[in-house]
Design goal:
The chain is α/β, with parallel strands linked by helices. Helix content is 35%, strand content 15%.
Length: 413
Amino acid sequence: MKVLHINISDAKGGAAKAVYRLHLSLLKQGIDSKMLVQQKLTDDKNIIGPESKIDKAINIARPEFDQIPLIISNYKSLSLFSTAKIPSGKILKTIQKHNPDIVHLHWICGGMIKVEDLAKINKPIVWSLHDMWPFTGGCHYDQECGRFTDNCGICKILESSNENDLSKRVFIRKQKAFSKKNDITIVGISKWLNDCSQKSTFLKGKKHINLPNPIDTNIFKPFDKNQSRYLWDLPKDKKIILFGAVKATGDPRKGYQEMLVALKELPNANVELVIFGSSEPENASKLGFKTHYLGHIYDDISLVSLYNAVDVMVVPSLQEAFGQTACEAMSCATPVVAFATTGLLDIVDHKVNGYLAKAFDTKDLANGIEWALNASNYDELCQNAREKVVNTFDSKLVAKKYIALYEKILDEV
């Protein structure tokens, strides 16, 4: 069986990590898996990327080209908004050249694939949703707007009051494009995302299944806490709280501001905070205790040692497709405190392996952090966290479920 994964990158961003992990897991199961990417950052021979300097330069510029309709329309998006109007370039020819049995789409924005070109892919498509974009009028997270169940327009993300704004035009284009391609199976990587897609105007008629992102529990595993703290130069006599994400302090969706409010509520000052994914902001908040800013971490081994160095991971996201950092931390036997919302509901079990605070209630988030740090059954929480990931999200288990899905689709062709 030949599977071709399509994603903007093989190493940059949360979706890229998830796709690459699935790709490796499938290879271990004997599947002929390859990735087709717009920007290749690794030297993996099974990853297909641009070869000439011209193609590489064009692909680097494609995300900027994709934003031209926003500039022309004079919209200033509050968060990422993709139009998928740039011609797909050599992507379709490359798919045809490799002739896979299954084309597995992942994060294909950034000017990678024009939405109208999906119908030109003459192979069954599996599409793993890593955010809400495939079923919205252009936003990647709707901030609970919910208009994807109707017609979009009057876009909250674009701060638009126009019924026929850019989001409505992208919505209509997608609606027409998806109506021409019936052999698409949608994979929601969380129950929440799967449910949203099933309620959406133009994907609700497609086949849906809920399958999570995989994680290699042989890599993300418990390690000596004292040794881990030594490696990161963290104190042994403090309770350490961890927060991290891509653009950790800059993306409002990740809940950084909500976390700061919660941390100021903590009665115990014998703590320190560690943040990865961002450098220290210019006007960093004063919390009354030390904060370590680690910047971006690119390799899994460093992440593993960091997860093992801390006492609790806080994932205060307002909307999260899955919750990859939560899963990684728990695989290293570190409890997670999060808001009880979206994809994190699949990962954290309240007071079993972490704490689910009432959605966006910063006082309850503070209660959860304090509870996790001082739980009388803390060792049990850690063990439960590890077991949840091993039994639910381990890469071997997830890969086998994907293989079963591929086989079922091919049997029905």
